[in-house]
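Justification of resources, computational component.

The compute hours requested in this renewal are based largely on the per-chain cost of generating structure records like the one below. Each record pairs the submitted sequence with a full structure-token output. That output is archived, and it is also reused by downstream analysis tasks.
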Amino acid sequence: MQGPHSHQRRPRLAFVGSMVGRHPGHITQQGQVLSDLFAESGYHVISVSSFLNRYRRLADIISTLIRRRDEIDIMVIEVYGGPSFVMEDIASWLGKRLRKRIVMWLHGGALPEFMARFPSWSKRVFSRADLIVTPSDFLARSVAGLGFRSRVIPNIIQLPLYPYRLRRSVSPRLFWMRNIQQIWNPLMAIRTLARLRNRFPDASLVMAGPDKGMKDEVEQTARSMGLGGSVRFTGFLDASGKIREGGAADIYINTNRIDNTPVAVVEAGAMGLPVVTTNVGGIPDLLVDGDTGLFVSDDDDKAMSEAICHLIENPELAERLSRNGRRLAERFAWDEVRPQWQQLFAELAGDRLEESPVFSYFSSTP
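The structure output for this chain reads:
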């Protein structure tokens, strides 16, 4: 597909990060999605690395960037902070040594806390970027606190893959989808269901996602609360599994304790599922309370169950959230997001970025 700058030589791209979603049963990250879509659009793309072991992955990244340095104009490095920041540090240092243009693409609700804990390290690494991209105003504000500007480009979903069903009214069939671990607060989902069943005895919950150390505790909690027959654990869901389970549900619940711009919430909206969510991190930048979702406080299962009851008892509200969720998801479609990345790459390739003593940047806000 021809882009707005197809008359120019397309820059050669290297996407650097965790590409382990190429293995069955592993979550596909945005860097892998974007690299594949640009490869399909006719760009020369290197995608590294898909090794499951993080040390082998780091070694593969280093060796690939050195060995294939003459095939790269622009490096796009996914930045999450945490343990992966070592890789992000090394890859960006190597990119500067190889004289490549560097885009740092920030992700994750935990990144602001990481930057606050390690400001000097974060500044040193971010200063190597020619341009910083974030998927949300939430992360843009966070990195601005360190003195860096960024451009906001939304995350991507392949919208045609998500069949839309307008919910004109909803029943208490709940869908939850994340890794089963503490930061996503799966126990809140169990407690919410227990409260909900006091009003709606037929309420049920599907919990989808790989176990990251908490599944036994969550299952035991469900059994102890008498919910064993009303909670179903699916494990990891591939694309067809998401469509199957999302299509059968009526309400998506998001219990996260930290968050940025969760793709799972956008996917729920794409399928027409009204969303009830904690209002943490970047959620208020993504959704509008009462318009594209219903907000409750962090870990407040009482408020979440009441919001679900309100949604069930107010068909007009359910229909509004279902319609507007799909409209929101359309902003994340590849056809909408692709031109923003193409413009960015054209600017980098043309060396037209504003110069700064620290690094070259563009801002999404004045």
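The two ends are 32 Å apart (CA to CA). The CA atoms of residues 205 and 231 lie 5 Å apart.
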